[in-house]
Design brief:
CATH superfamily of chain A: P-loop containing nucleotide triphosphate hydrolases
Order of helices and strands of chain A: HEHEHEHEHEHHEHE
Radius of gyration of chain B: 17 Å
Oligomer: heterodimer
Strand content of chain B: 25-35%
Number of domains of chain B: 1
CATH topology of chain B: Chemotaxis protein chec
CATH architecture of chain A: 3-Layer(aba) Sandwich
CATH superfamily of chain B: CheC-like
Distance between the termini of chain B: 28 Å
Structural class of chain A: alpha/beta
Shape of chain A: globular
Helix content of chain A: 40-55%
Number of strands of chain A: 7
Structural class of chain B: alpha+beta
Chain lengths: ~180, ~210
């Protein structure tokens, strides 16, 4: 099924992406869907500044994207304040991540939240914690008009988590 | 495009070689085990990059990487040092270093961060020590932190906080293969120097060759 139709018909989605397709999928998604209205990009694996530079090169209007970044503060204690980004200390600070996401949903009413990615969460958090976290954020989004797109790599380490989280989303798609 | 003379290339390659040797010594000191270092000449590379054009994708494997990141916080050069391993390799190295059965650690917790950070501290210190002893560079690195990224996005940290977007910089890049008795650790050590620091480094190399 085409990504367009899937996004139109479902509110909570899990995209399971082969490592070879991952970068292309993320770029295409940002270019095709995050350019339309306000969106939220939760980046767990890439610092805000380099992500924004990359999106700008792809002609994506980053002014309408709100970012939640869990990478930059891991490398730097000194941060320049950004109007469109919340910096979380690390991908293991799940409570803070959840609070930040709620704040963005309440204040900006984004059309899409791109969660990039569950695989990165797995570096720092046990499976059962991630599953509970994913269930929580999906439930919170369900009370709003926002659609959430969770990304996960298609790897052997992720099999269990994909199986569990697929039960909470409306649709799972392999890319 | 900045062109290096043969002397400068040779000097940078020699420095890179020495950095790798000292990195293996740091590993030996931490683990208490003999480390064999396997570096082929083709794996040693010192190259010029344009920071403004650097978003070219590399052929790095599309897997998760861990990096040990520090920046030069004091001295007469500035730049970043990043030591990278595939995530699973980094966790195997951690197990080996704390004498745990290799392959049992699956998560990056505080203990993993602390042990790998200490490794980064020693390797980065040795690397800057080589530059100090051979060229008279004065540089002190920051406390290393553990970062992660998918595929070649790990390079984001090599360029982290380097503001000189339109100038050129140099990356001294070493592909390493550390062999313990029954464990092979593949990784990369990258030192990025800003354009200004790179120019200073070349001047130091020229001065060294003359004197």
């Amino acid at each position: 099924m085409e990504t367009n139709k899937i996004l139109e018909e479902n509110q909570a989605l899990l995209f399971v992406i082969s490592p070879d397709n991952y970068q292309t999928f993320v770029k295409d998604f940002a270019k095709n869907y995050m350019n339309k209205g306000v969106s939220c990009y939760i980046t767990l694996g890439r610092p805000y500044q380099s992500l924004v530079n990359n999106l700008k090169k792809m002609k994506v209007d980053t002014d309408s994207i709100f970012f939640i970044d869990t990478s930059t503060r891991m490398a730097s204690m000194t941060l320049s304040q950004q109007d469109n980004c919340l910096f979380i200390e690390s991908p293991s600070a799940l409570t803070n991540l959840s609070i930040a996401m709620n704040k963005v949903v309440e204040t900006s009413d984004p059309k899409y939240i791109l969660f990039d990615s569950l695989s990165t969460l797995m570096i720092y958090n046990p499976e059962k914690v991630i599953i509970k976290f994913a269930k929580d954020i999906i439930n919170k989004v369900r009370a709003t008009n926002t659609k959430i797109v969770l990304l996960c790599l298609d790897g052997k380490d992720e099999v269990n988590i994909i199986e569990k989280i697929s039960m909470f989303v409306d649709k799972m798609e392999h890319i | 495009m900045v062109k290096l003379t043969k002397l400068e290339k040779d000097a940078l390659n020699e420095i890179t070689n020495m950095c790798s040797f000292h990195a293996s010594m740091a590993l030996e000191a931490i683990t208490g085990k003999a480390v064999e270092l396997d570096i082929k000449s083709k794996n040693i590379d010192s190259y010029i990059v344009s920071l403004g054009e650097r978003q070219q994708e590399s052929d790095k494997d599309p897997v998760m990487f861990l990096g040990i990141y520090s920046y030069i916080e004091r001295g007469n050069i500035d730049g970043n040092i990043v030591i990278t391993f595939k995530k699973d390799t980094a966790l195997r190295l951690y197990d080996f270093m704390i004498k745990k059965q290799v392959g049992t650690t699956k998560l990056v917790d505080d203990s993993v961060r602390n042990v790998l950070s200490e490794l980064g501290n020693m390797v980065s210190g040795q690397m800057l020590g080589v530059l100090n002893r051979s060229l008279g560079v004065e540089a002190v690195h920051s406390v290393p932190t553990i970062v992660h990224s998918f595929g070649d996005h790990i390079y984001d940290y090599v360029y982290f906080n380097i503001e000189d977007k339109n100038k050129r910089a140099i990356i001294i890049n070493v592909d390493t293969k550390f062999k313990f008795s029954n464990l092979i650790i593949d990784g990369q050590i990258m030192l990025l120097l800003s354009h200004k620091s790179f120019s200073s480094l070349l001047k130091m190399i020229d001065k060294m060759s003359k004197g």
